[in-house]
Amino acid sequence: MGEPHDVLLEVRGRGCYAARRLAIAGPTLLGLSFLIFLLGSLAGDPSGKIAERGLLPGEVPTAEQIAAVHHELGLDRPLPVRYGEWLVRAAHGDLGKSLITGQGVGEAIRGAVPATVGLAAAATMLLIMVSVPLGVVGALLRGRWLQQVVRVGTLAGASIPGFFLAYLLIYVFAVRLHLLPVFGSVGPKSMVLPAVTLAVGPTALVSRLLQKALVEELGDDYIRTARAKGLTETAVVVSHALRNAFLPVVTVLGNVLARLLEGAVVVELIFGRSGVGSLTLQAVGSSDYPMTQGVVLFAGVVVIAFNLAVDLTYPRLDPRVRLGAVS
Amino acid sequence: MGEGFSLGRSRGRQRGLGRPVGRLLRDPPAVVGAVALILVAAVLAAAPWLGLKDPLAVSVPDRLARFSWAHPLGTDGLGRDMLSRTLHGGRTSVALTMAVTAITTVVGVVLGVLAGLRGGFVDSSVMRVVELVQALPLVIVAMVTVKLLGGGPEKLVLVLSALGWTGQARVVRAATLSLRERDFVKSSRALGSSRLRIAFRHLVPNLLGPVVVIATLEVGRTLLALSTLSFLGFGARPPHPEWGSMLADARTYFFVAPRLLIIPGVAIFIVALAANLFGEGLRDAFEARTA
Questions:
Q1: Which residues of B touch A259 (CB under 8 A)?
Q2: Cβ–Cβ of A43/B148 closer than 8 Å?
Q3: Closest Cα partner for A131 from A239, A222, A250?
Q4: Min CA distance, B225 vs chain A (Å)?
């Protein structure tokens, strides 16, 4: 919370804002890639497992066969060399092959992305439709009992574990009321419960942040000016305060997206959907390290790219950042 | 300035906790949260002396029993007493959560103070690591590393601690940056105090408020992350109960006995909500100090 202040703080006297954000994203990405590479190489030697693949079930690969695979994978060379090669291949989109299915990692991820993007898009729609009104109501009703209801309600949304919420929703809407299908991913109706499950946590986060920002904006001098010149309360709130209150929300969009990806692991498991989340769970569960490296790298790159996109558009939204004059 | 925290205008040390506590008591949701936390802590601490049944005792004839005097919360799919499992599971979940929170608080405070006081290269390195860690999807990375380290509760604590200290570090750093420009710190430095003395004598006491607030809020977040990982199979090992893994076990009986799933789910929800209510209330109480 409160990242916007930090962003503003860093701008002060540091020259070109966009260049600085770009300069941060690069090393972050590189650090991430190295961690992911280390993860894979610490996972142990997969040669035995790969050598087994061409054999009959129950047959044990010979030492020569394992050694051949070992050499073929380049595991007999020093770590920095292997990291460099891995990085170059990864940059070209070649993330290796699954140890379990032999399918290309990049291909598998590309196949899983559309389903998860669809789910995340539905959740994001819900997020926007619910969190904006909630944030506004929470901010305008300061000090009344309804505000306490909004406060406790959004905190409850932030406190309920996604996996529990999923089963509660299934129980109420599918088992008891028979309104929606329980599992699977056929038809638009099957999207409702997973999207709601995925949206609740981030919605709570965003509406609370928006509320806090809006309260701060409403106490500012320019709001008093706007009111003094006779603008309606709606105009003051919607076109003056809300506009500015969105700024701190924009800065946590990367964080929100990371939460959606995390949520997708649980949601896709429970609702039996395919996607990046279930692919991740499968890969980790079966110790399929090339696949695991691929999905973690994918998740990290998406979050970093999103954060960077936010950072680069931020000066357009907030002239104070663009002009380097921070109050 | 900083991470949503305005520090009091106190000289040297806090002027006691009287006023924030008073404000906290006038905030009903925060009081409810605090009372709930105390009750849960007391019940979980007393669990071994409550005369509960063995949480691991399997009794197939009694399986999936409904609520009764013998089994106040019924039994699970193997006839184990749910009340006992819920309380013993809670001891595990809450103990692991507290361990993670304790570690992340210490690490966050040390690194935050270090970054804020030293500035320069130390500061920017710490902040780069913070940004890197915060760019990671926590649950996914935790899953991978726990699996890699071989699983088990202690690994879970280690991994969640390694990924969880950044929030505390950011807040402490921001607060340190604003504190070190204050007159009482400057005069102490002018008198020749060492950095260590400044850190312990002047900074840490003034950081207490924000640190306690963040730690309380982290309890809720950590419990959720921990139980999510357990639910996914990366945590406590069966048969020992833990709230997340109890919920995972209950999936088999979801259509027959949804209560098996609802009981640990509600337990996690209550503790997380109570910690968040109390933490929020604390934050408001401390923030309002200068107002």
A1: 137
A2: yes
A3: A250
A4: 8
Q: Whole-angstrom Cα distance, residue A173 to residue A168?
A: 8
Q: What residue has token string 């020992």?
A: B240
Superfamily of structural domain A118-274: MetI-like (1.10.3720.10)
Minimal C-alpha gap between B146 and chain A (Å): 10
pLDDT in tens, B68-100: 777 777 777 777 888 888 888 889 899 999 999
Q: B63 or A327, which is more confident?
A: B63
B121-142 pLDDT, tens digit each: 888 889 888 888 887 788 888 8
The residue of chain A with its CA nearest to that of B5 is A2
Cβ atoms of B58 and B80 within 8 Å: the answer is yes
Q: Which long-range contacts (CB under 8 A, 24 or more apart) does B39-42 make?
A: B40/B90, B40/B94, B40/B270, B40/B271, B40/B274, B41/B94
> Is B117 within 8 Å of B203 (Cβ atoms)?
yes
- Closest-CA residue of chain B to A291: B144
Give CA separation, B250 vs A264, A275, B42, B82, B264, in Å.
21, 24, 26, 11, 9
Indicate the residue of A9, A39, A160 with minimum beta-carbon distance to B148: A39
Residues 6+ apart with CB under 8 A from A23: none
Identify the residue with better confidence: A76 or B160.
Answer: B160
Residue of chain B nearest A44, judged by CA positions = B148
A73 at interface of B, judged by CB pairs closer than 8 A: no
**Tokens 């690194």 found at:** B111
Please report the domains of chain B, with CATH numbers, ordered by start residue: 2-290 (1.10.3720.10)
> Would an 8 Å CB–CB cutoff place A21 in contact with chain B?
no
The more confidently predicted of residues A180 and A114 is A114
Map out the domains of chain A as residue ranges: 118-274
Closest partner residue to B276 (CB to CB) among A155, A295, A300 is A155
